[in-house]
Amino acid sequence: MRPVNVAVVYYSATGTVHTLARAVAEGAEKAGATVRLRKVAETAPAEAVGARPEWARHLEDTADVAEAAHGDLEWADAVLLGTPTRFGNPAGQLRTFLDTTGPLWFQGKLADKVYSAFTASNTAHGGQESTLLALANTFSHWGGVIVPPGYTDPVQFRSGNPYGTSHVTGDGPPGEVVLDAARHQARRVVDTAASLLAGRAARGL
Ligand SMILES: Cc1cc2nc3c(=O)[nH]c(=O)nc-3n(C[C@H](O)[C@H](O)[C@H](O)COP(=O)(O)O)c2cc1C
After folding, report:
1. Angle between the 176-202 and 16-30 helix axes, to the nearest 10 degrees?
2. Residues enclosing ligand 1, CB less than 6 A?
3. For ligand 1, what atom is nearest to the CA of residue 18?
4. Closest CA to 87 of 49, 136, 54, 128
5. Tens of pLDDT, residues 32-62
6. Is the pTM above the cut of 0.85?
7. Residues in the chain with pLDDT < 70?
8. Distance 109 CA to ligand 1 centre (A)
9. Is 149 exposed, middle or buried (0-12, 13-18, 19+ CB in 10 A)?
10. 148, 167, 164: which is closest to 84 by C-alpha?
11. Domains (ranges, CATH) in the chain?
């Protein structure tokens, strides 16, 4: 059977979610997948970006990361979306990309894939779960198979979010526990997508 194709599509203003996205990509690769790590386009005005040096710096530092395109979603068997929390919701930059996918959705090209999500917020109760559940709304409209990490690995009892890997940025940069959780989430997504591929192949679909 061919390897599972995984697209890790994320937005990050100051690097936290980018770090999580890299751990997710690493976990997926280690699980045998072919991985595309893709950022979505920055849509904030240059004055807003320029007013926060860490934002401008991160944008420069990740200039070499390819931008997500519809072809990445079409290609993927599994998609992991990453976003910082913005007032309890996904960032507008990610939403802007998702809101261009109508034509793919209409043709059924987003259905039957595995979907999962990860996030970061500044505070522990600052909306991680509402952000992840908001993305689950979109996955449902797409007809996706949503695969959350749950408590399927001991690391989940330490990192503590069954909805998706989450980091509290106010506590400092992501450490080994949350990065392990990200790798575990990716592995679980790849395993599920591989089972679906194998099952479809066995049934001649
Ligand atoms: C406009 C805006 C809204 C935010 N809303 C929240 C929020 O609702 N809860 C929270 O804990 N953090 C909030 N934050 C903080 C970010 O979620 C946090 O800094 C994030 O982890 C940074 O991720 P990044 O480094 O990948 O950009 C907000 C930040 C901005 C700029």
Report:
1. 50
2. 12-17, 84-88, 120-123, 126-127, 169
3. 26
4. 128
5. 999 999 999 999 999 999 999 999 999 999 9
6. yes
7. none
8. 31
9. buried
10. 167
11. 5-202 (3.40.50.360)
